[in-house]
Amino acid sequence: MDVASLSLEALSRFVTEELGERAFRAPQLYRWLHQRGATSFDEMTDLSKALREKLRARAEIIPLVKDLEQRSIDGTIKYRWKTRDGRFIESVYMPAEDRRTLCVSTQVGCAMACSFCMTGTMGLKRNLTASEIVAQVHAVNREVRKNEGHETLRPLSNLVFMGMGEPLHNFENLKTALAILQSQDGPNFSHRHITVSTVGLVPMIERFGKETDVKLAISLNASTDEQRSKTMPVNRKWNIAALLDACRTFPLRQGRRITFEYVLIKGFNDADEDAHRLIELLKGIPVKVNLIPYNENPGLGFHTTGEERAEEFRAILADGHVAAYIRRNRGRDIAGACGQLANRGETQAGAETQT
Ligand code: SF4
Hints:
two-stranded antiparallel sheet; binds iron/sulfur cluster; DNA polymerase, domain 1; TIM Barrel; rRNA (adenine(2503)-C2-)-methyltransferase activity; tRNA processing; 12 strands; 4 iron, 4 sulfur cluster binding; alpha/beta; 12 helices
């Protein structure tokens, strides 16, 4: 049994029904797994030897092994992890003055095939399990504690699910991972500090709104269906109108807005008309727009919008009463920025410096 993939409820059932232990052992075990991020049963010194033996025989903690660490000049660190079946995934740590954010992956590769994104070129290899999603957070908490000398068990303050993969395409595991990450007996992240980004799997947006309470971000990146379908195949199934309808009926908590991510690509979606169309499209939805100057990837053929043009674009949105912000690119020099995560490890494992 992959015990770190179980919600507290499911773990309680396993502990009582499968191991024949008293119920209070479950939260004890859960705290070891998800508050302390234990990687072996031997660390769990307040569990009896007999119970640890039983756990070793009937359960396992599946490791995520650090394979590569790359540090950007801006403080961003990209981690590459090796899964037990030899796959590679990446997470990106972004420290700032007021927060420490981790960008988390939910799949090995991605099926969505957005043409501007390196991960999209890989295709989907497999979904990550809930424990592999959560293990990225535990592992980076350990790294940050070690590197920055924190006493607290959870130095990370914010999580964004914008790494490799489409989170809503792996919804069940995402949901379990969120329940663990938000649990008081686990890392106890607030719903206000977790954002999940989707390209627009419309039926899943509704479920996401009903079954979780964390923040929603939509990766929009175009102002017409023609444009969007060219770069984001998902748009051929659910077009902009269907996506925005789902946003209009999304159950937003009071004071909350939906974030729209808009990657600015030179000469493709950064004209004045695009900004004006966006204003019209987003009418009636409480939104915040993050403008992300495109991070160029060799071979994909897209170019970044310059700073001046990005500012002009932002100003048009602001004039149209749309709150828009230009997002500072993090980790560009280590290919750790938006759209740059790619599993070069799938073909190059071991070719780069091991850490
Ligand atoms: S942008 Fe996101 S959804 Fe699109 S291919 Fe890349 S990882 Fe997948």
